Amino acid sequence: MTELERQLLNALESLEGGYRVQHSAWESAYSDLRLMFEATSTENRALRESVGSLSKQVLHLSAQVERLSQKLKP
């Protein structure tokens, strides 16, 4: 093996090592993002249910206020 071939092989091995490190970092970041997405989706689902419940309460209270205001009119 010539000196040039050794240098090229070393450069290739160095690039491969860098790729492996970067690939591992990307996999870790992807996993973290997936977990964050799942947690956010769960939280959003719970918030939508709460908003729906609160909206029903507001409508009910609004109807009660309307009925009471009609009763108070002379």
UniProtKB/TrEMBL annotation:
Keywords: Plasmid
Protein name as catalogued: Mobilization protein
Protein's organism: Aeromonas salmonicida (strain A449)
NCBIfam families: plas_excl_MbeD
Pfam family, one: MbeD_MobD
Lineage: Bacteria, Pseudomonadati, Pseudomonadota, Gammaproteobacteria, Aeromonadales
